[in-house]
Every structure is written in structure tokens, then in C-alpha cells.
Design brief:
By secondary structure, the chain is α/β, with parallel strands linked by helices. It has eight helices and eleven strands. It has a seven-stranded mixed β-sheet with strand order 5-2-1-6-7-11-10, with helices on both faces. A two-stranded antiparallel sheet has the order 3-4. Helix 1 links the parallel strand 1 and strand 2. Helix 1 packs parallel to helix 6 and helix 6 packs antiparallel against helix 7. It is globular.
Length: about 190
């Protein structure tokens, strides 16, 4: 079974965290939510408290197939301020393993860490300057995959972004079945 760690910081965008968590779990992926705060509870950008499965200090992440960062502000800034998380992301990326981030997180976290250097990526519109500074090409797409890095645009991209991650971790057939069961394809007129 594939394993994903999702990092929650105060100020995270709940849609961008919970939709991928839900889709991945429906697809049979083990998803572990990780609090990088001083408490198991992380408060979203809109005041929703979510209790993480584990605290950051309880994990070493070597068993991860994917490390995932939801966006939101100040959530993304809080993720970047956590030195242990930054080291885990850089090490995971250097090992050739998958990284995913959505909304502000590609610009605020991945770009300054060098993870987007020379890559194609997307992020929340208006936040693309750090991508350019990192030598990344901004696509403006709902999601962009370049090698082992997948980036998403923002809250509206949460479903297609999540289905893409599920395709990468399990397979496209499973992802399509989950999307159909959740009526996403009906919504998109497909």
C-alpha cells in the first residue's frame, strides 16, 4: 500500500487538504496527517480545527511515497518556517521521491527550497513570482506534473489535483472509478 504524509500547519486551506486526503483514502492509499504545530490540532485558514493523526516529531518519513503540502495563508508560511519539514522535503526530493503542493505552497515552500528549479509548476494566481525566481516555468494550469513534483493551482483544483495524485500512486483506472463514484465526471460533463 502506498503511503502519503499530509502536513497541517495553522492557517492551512481545508479544501486543499481534506479533498486529497479523502480521495486518496477512498483509493486505498494510506494517508497520515501530520501536525507541525505544538498540538495535534491545527486550525485552518477559516477557523476549522482538524486533529492530525500524528505529530511531526513522531515520524521519520522514510516510508513515504509522497509528501504533500496543502496551501492557504498563513499555512504555507508556517510550513516554510518549520525547519524539520523543510529538511524532510529536500531529502525526499533528493531521493527522487514524489512531492506535491497546492495553492500558495509551491511558491512559498517548494520554490525557496530549490525543489522547483527548472521545473514546470503552477500555484495560486498572483503568487507566481517565486516560481520565476526559482527558474520554474509557471503554467497556470489546474495542476502540473513535472517529474516527481506535482503542483496545484488552488481550491477549485483540489479534486482534479487529488485524482491526478491517485493516478500516480495507484492507477488511472482506480482514479477514474473514484471520480465517477464521487460524481466528479458528472460535474465536469464527461
Amino acid at each position: 500500500m502506498k503511503k502519503v504524509y499530509v502536513f497541517l500547519a495553522d492557517g492551512f486551506e481545508e479544501i486543499e487538504a481534506l479533498i486529497p486526503i479523502d480521495v486518496l483514502r477512498r483509493g486505498g492509499v494510506e494517508v497520515v496527517t501530520v501536525s507541525i504545530t505544538d498540538f495535534p490540532l491545527a486550525q485552518s485558514a477559516h477557523g476549522v480545527n482538524i486533529e492530525a493523526d500524528v505529530m511531526f516529531e513522531q515520524c521519520d518519513f522514510t516510508d513515504a511515497d509522497l509528501l504533500f503540502l496543502p496551501g492557504g495563508m498563513p499555512g504555507s508560511s508556517n510550513l516554510f518556517a518549520h525547519k524539520g519539514l523543510c529538511k524532510a522535503l529536500v531529502d525526499h526530493f533528493a531521493a527522487g521521491k514524489k512531492i506535491a503542493a497546492i495553492c500558495a505552497a509551491p511558491a512559498v515552500v517548494l520554490a525557496p527550497l530549490g525543489i522547483l528549479d527548472g521545473k514546470r509548476a503552477t500555484c495560486y494566481p498572483g503568487m507566481e513570482q517565486p516560481l520565476a525566481e526559482a527558474g520554474a516555468t509557471y503554467t497556470g494550469d489546474l495542476f502540473t506534473v513535472d517529474g516527481n513534483v506535482t503542483t496545484g493551482e488552488g481550491p477549485a483544483a483540489a479534486f482534479p489535483f487529488a485524482y491526478e495524485l491517485l493516478s500516480q500512486l495507484v492507477d488511472k483506472k482506480t482514479s477514474d472509478q473514484i471520480a465517477e463514484g464521487m460524481r466528479f465526471k458528472h460535474l465536469m460533463g464527461k
